[in-house]
């Protein structure tokens, strides 16, 4: 009987640790946020390389939301994107979204660049000004190709 008690205790510890990891992962990804604590805005990017559903949306380096959906618009061939922004963050209607990089080896995130308008976007509105991702390979090719190739002696 003592052996059964020790197995039950060990099993309970394993279940508790697993539940702790699930709660931690939920908080880390923002999945545990209460419903209604954010509102959605849409935007259209020429190139959305490097971002996916769940990518952070940051304002001044602080996470204020995430990308909630992405789809190709077959009429414009642009990446239609929907983001959620935390309630209480008023976004001016002349704001912009840009896909930025965390560094040379880091991932990408969506940067919210606030405008100066006294009018604010309402839930469901579209952000008109966007800047897509920049390909590191194309930048390197421009840099390498812009050397003085015609200089010979």
Which key phrases capture this entry?
eight-stranded mixed sheet; about 25% helix
List the helices and strands and how they pair.
Blueprint: H1 2-29, E1 38-45, E2 56-59, E3 62-73, E4 78-86, E5 96-101, E6 108-113, E7 126-127, E8 129-131, H2 136-145
Parallel strand pairs: 1-7, 2-6, 5-8
Antiparallel strand pairs: 1-4, 2-3, 3-4, 5-6
Descriptive report:
This protein has helices at residues 2-29, 136-145, and strands at 38-45, 56-59, 62-73, 78-86, 96-101, 108-113, 126-127, 129-131. It is an alpha/beta fold and 153 residues long. A hairpin with a 4-residue loop joins strand 3 and strand 4 (78-86).
| Terminal Cα span | 92 Å
Mean pLDDT: 84
| Alpha plus pi helix count | 2
| Structural class by SSE content | alpha/beta
SSE succession:
HEEEEEEEEH
Strand content: 25-35%
Give the helix level as a range of percent: 10-25%
User: How many beta strands in the DSSP annotation?
Assistant: 8
Question: Any idea what the radius of gyration is?
Answer: 23 Å
Biggest sheet overview: 8 strands, mixed
Form type: extended
User: Which strands sit side by side, in order, in the main sheet?
Assistant: 7-1-4-3-2-6-5-8
- Assembly context of the chains: single chain
Low-confidence stretches: none
């Amino acid at each position: 009987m003592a052996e059964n008690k020790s197995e039950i205790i060990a099993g309970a510890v394993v279940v508790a640790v697993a539940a702790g990891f699930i709660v931690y992962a939920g908080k880390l990804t923002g999945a545990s946020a209460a419903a209604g604590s954010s509102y959605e805005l849409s935007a259209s990017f020429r190139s959305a390389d490097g971002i996916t559903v769940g990518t952070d949306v940051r304002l001044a380096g602080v996470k204020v939301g995430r990308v909630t959906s992405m789809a190709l618009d077959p009429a414009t061939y642009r990446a239609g994107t929907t983001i959620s922004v935390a309630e209480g963050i008023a976004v001016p209607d002349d704001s912009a979204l840009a896909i930025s990089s965390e560094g040379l080896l880091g991932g990408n995130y969506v940067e919210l660049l606030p405008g100066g308008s006294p009018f604010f976007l309402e839930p469901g509105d579209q952000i008109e000004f966007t800047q897509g991702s920049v390909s590191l390979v194309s930048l390197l090719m421009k840099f390498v190709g812009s050397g003085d190739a015609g200089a010979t002696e």
